[in-house]
Amino acid sequence: MALAAAAILGRGSTAAIARRTAARHLEAGAIDAAERSLDWADWLAPGDEANDLMRAACFRRLGDIDAWRSALEMAERSGVPAAAIEREHRVGNIRWGQVESVAWGDYDALIDSGAAPRDAVHAVVHGLLAKGDRQKAQNLIDAWAKTNPGGEDEASFLRGVAWWSAGKLDSAQAEFEKTLDRQPGHELAHAGLARLFEDQHRYQQALEHDHWLVTSAPDRESARVDLARIYRKLGRMKDVRAVLKPPAPGTDVSERMALELAEMEFESGNYQTAQRWFDRAHLERQRVPESIRAAATSAALLGDLARAEQLFPSVDDPQGISRRRDELMRRIALDPADFVAAGELRQLPVRPAVPGPDSDSTSAPAPLALFRQHCAACHGDNGNGAGRAARHLHPRPRNLRADRFRLISTLNHVPTREDIERVIREGIPGASMPSFARLPKDQQRLLAEEVLRLYGERFREE
Question: DSSP 3-state helix, strand, coil percentages of the chain (rounded to 5)?
């Protein structure tokens, strides 16, 4: 149809039609369809600066700030008028909260400058949320829906974003679903539901939306990585490989893709391959506790204890967690709809109390911190035997909260601290429990105390 139109109307006129089609798709939230229409427009009219500007708008809607900046630079080089570039800069900076303040009046100012109503309301609502003013954001959404006929679908999506930022997940889910009732192809609503369900461990429901997103935008790497992660959490490793299609050695991949490839190989028991991908993911920049723990466990199972001991302390290192928390809070401030960052932030351990002036900063590590550093990878954070490495070990690690202990010196089968210290020091021959004789004796004692505490939890639970 595009070729026929080009033959009848001319390439320039057909490119303009393709661009208008892209704009309609963008209004409906069908961003990949908009990008495909822009590809046609590029083919019909190479170098048309209007295409570059609209592509930047697509990346802005997706919340991809790096791609948005690159597209905007390309639009500027291709000759887009300075006023249009300045307007898009303003829309994006408000949308990511990169301005001193955001007010309701910014919406009117953007409209006066020529911005589309949906672009303006998206930008100001996200900006208000980034500044923590949820009530004004909600008021603007409601007012916009009343004055823009046919805009209720977008208003529902924005309400979902606002409820999500307030932590009211049921309300956010209801609004995202309402959006899809009106606009089934709204990609951001699908993505919002997928991350919301993932955050609640409702993986099967998340899978439906992530699968739709990959089907809709098969070339979008972020969609494929999200789908692969859900498949991995469901234990469907063949599907993970089919989605990721592991690239040939030496192929350039993003850090996000490298990290998911590493997790895939680790879960499959291919530790050497996993380590290579972990190295390419630059863990020192990721600061994701779950991934670092997997990398440390992989190194330990390969016998690289020096690497494992280097990584394990950073998993629960309070400073590392604080740095990651600050990074996530900055991401959410820039993009309140960054559901992945919001979900990870909720899963981080509670910020440790700041030591008072009379506290002893040189005191020994807490028993729980030692347990998570040395034992949690196999026994699990809460001692239930379901650590990340458990599935690869035989026999499986002991459930310290439920299983009976074997090497004990008492008649009632309740281990003493000395019994547990001996196991920690010597390990268990023929089992997957190694020796930790290299640890200082005071740390062995603290670990034994933590194991006894976990053992006692069974009685409290019962």
Answer: 70, 0, 30
Residue 260 CA to residue 242 CA, distance in Å, equals 13
Displacement of CA 409 from its chain's centroid (Å): 48
Phi–psi pair at 360, nearest 5 degrees = -95, 100
Give CA–CA dist 103/87, Å, rounded: 17
For residues 161 and 5, the model is more confident at 161
Lowest mean pLDDT among 8-22, 353-367, 372-386, 409-423: 353-367
Q: How many CB atoms lie within 10 A of CB 318?
A: 12
Give the Cα separation of 106 and 140 in Å (integer).
11
Which whole number is the average pLDDT over 140-167? 88
What stretch of H or E contains 448? helix 441-461
Give the pTM: 0.66
Q: Are 310 and 284 in contact (CB under 8 A)?
A: no
**pLDDT tier, 376 (very low <50, low <70, confident <90, very high otherwise):** confident
* 8 A C-beta contact, residue 71 and residue 55: yes
- The answer to whether 308 and 297 are in contact (CB under 8 A) is yes
Q: How far apart are CA 390 and CA 109, in angstroms?
A: 58
Q: Say which residues have a Cβ less than 8 Å from residue 167's Cβ, sequence separation at least 6.
A: none
Instruction: Report CA-CA distances (Å) from 10 to 36, 78, 359.
Output: 20, 22, 78
Contact 330, 424 (CB under 8 A): no
Token couple for 90: 């303003």
